Amino acid sequence: RIHTIIQEADLPLVVLNPPANLKDTPPFKSEHRSDLSEEEEMAFQDYVNQAENLYQTDVAKAAECLRWAVDLDPSFALAHYSLAHCYLALANFAKAEHHFIEALNEDICPLRLLPSMRTFVNDYCQSNNIPSLDLQPLLRNFSGEMVIGSGILVDHVHPSIKGHQFIGEETA
Questions:
Q1: To bridge 77 with a disulfide, which of 20, 27, 40, 168 should be the other Cys (CB 3.0-4.6 Å)?
Q2: Which residues face 17 on adjacent strands?
């Protein structure tokens, strides 16, 4: 609709696809899958508790416990987020980013742009020849962070002053 209005007014348009703090913003709300049995929920919680106890001394074992929890209930966003932090500590950035994105996808109250929305905006802009900037990879590269976080964003979505300056320069 915005695109149509802008075209009708013969105005220029540049779309900025907003960033999301994956690394330093936990999911706002997690829920267990609806068919999780009481025994499975107890096992899930046991794995999470073991991981919390192991994180400071054996991150690899903590990650293993969290993988078991995620296998039991892949819809519990916070388990993905915790597992992602284990992978960050183990310098497995691809798996870390995957689980940060899963945490975002499974968040019951996602206040950040979902990956499917990001893809839609990018595809729409490309198919309609609209100039655009996807700020997620742009700010990740600018910040030097392997997974975008508080190094460039001041909260779950808003860039720092340096981030805004960089976005302005790239937009210009």
A1: 27
A2: 134
